[in-house]
């Protein structure tokens, strides 16, 4: 790695930060509404994750491109406006081409606007770094978020219906546990998963 | 009389049965972040109630009288977010001027109210429910805020008592809070049959 210049290391760090080291759901605990709300099954969770990746990459790109023109006191409103624009695009796209998913996700697609992850990345990364790093950063954090959503949704879907992505995976003797589909399932599963991450990181550190 | 009944039922429904935190998972960030102490939680709840009441009503007015009439529904999200950000700015200036200690204890969470999902979520749900009179909208918006206050205060009270509890090391902090929240939603599901 001796011949790598510092900038390529910066790119690599941007690309890997969100996956585990700063995973928004498991490590930073931000943007907690969608992981709880749309994870009753894997398909809506995946759709949500992909929409978030799209919005995050586009808004990081837009914010990074205009970072030199931003006045400090106006920056938050500019972030939110660019995010809202891209969320509108994603929402219209889903409504036109994925009407079923749009129906299931309902108001949680427009709620991406107020997802803390996106504004957090705009503030911390995109308003300071160049366009390429910002795009990589968007991909990395979006993917980390999508992975977290899918893990949570997978556990809940398997325990609640015995299916994964609509395909039965459990033996016929398996008794579905309906509570996993209800709000309580979301909170408790996420709580236990966070406990597990804490346990794993503590082991690694100690 | 009939109208009064609808209003009261709508209010109870949005505070208890369809509580935004417990059934729609909105506002989970402050719910986990600011629920460490009861007085801060109560202040946060009040701030959110004020902003929801204000922005729920304002966005409905903007939507009903401007966007729908001019056929500009496509810009709905952008307009909502501008109205909400304006309302939050107003509350922030007010709190900073008149309750400096409260302002200090809020820390980063007060500006974050504008990116709090309760508020935008409420505006979107009012739009989905298709409510079409101003009084009902105001009652529902206030109710949503009060529901949030109830939820966050219960949580803060439990957490204050949990300080003494012997929680396994890896579950300390957010995980045990989430599990507690899960049990609370289970309790609140008992109200589900109360209102059709």
Tag the structure with descriptive keywords:
heterodimer, A: 206 residues, mainly alpha, two-stranded antiparallel ribbon, globular, B: mainly alpha, 10 helices, 77% helix, 0% strand
What does the largest sheet of chain B look like? none
The helix-and-strand class of chain A reads mainly alpha
> In this structure, how is the largest beta sheet of chain A organized?
2 strands, antiparallel
Q: What is the arithmetic mean of pLDDT of chain B? A: 84
Strand percent estimate of chain B: under 5%
- Extended strand count of chain B: 0
How many helices of chain B? 10
Mean pLDDT of chain A: 85
| H-E order of chain B | HHHHHHHHHH
Taking all Cα atoms into account, the compactness measure Rg of chain A is 18 Å
List the helices and strands and how they pair.
The complex is a heterodimer of chains A (206) and B (196).
Chain A: H1 6-17, H2 33-37, H3 42-65, H4 75-97, H5 99-105, H6 116-126, H7 131-161, E1 163-164, E2 167-168, H8 183-205
Antiparallel strand pairs in A: 1-2
Chain B: H1 2-17, H2 20-24, H3 28-33, H4 38-70, H5 76-98, H6 100-106, H7 109-112, H8 117-129, H9 134-162, H10 174-188
Helix pairs in contact in B: 1-9, 4-5, 4-8, 4-9, 5-6, 8-9
Task: Describe the model.
The complex is a heterodimer of chains A (206) and B (196). Helices cover 66% and strands 2% of the residues of chain A. With 206 residues, chain A is an all-alpha fold. Chain A has one domain. Chain A has a two-stranded antiparallel sheet. In chain A, strand 1 (163-164) and strand 2 form a beta hairpin. In chain A, helix 3 (42-65) packs antiparallel against helix 7, helix 4 packs across helix 5 (99-105) and helix 4 crosses helix 6 (116-126). Chain A starts with 5 loop residues before the first helix and ends with a helix. Chain B is mostly helical. Chain B has a domain at 29-163. Chain B has ten helices and no strands. Chain B has helices at residues 2-17, 20-24, 28-33, 38-70, 76-98, 100-106, 109-112, 117-129, 134-162, 174-188. Classes of the chains: A mainly alpha (206), B mainly alpha (196). The interface between A and B is large, with 42 and 45 residues.
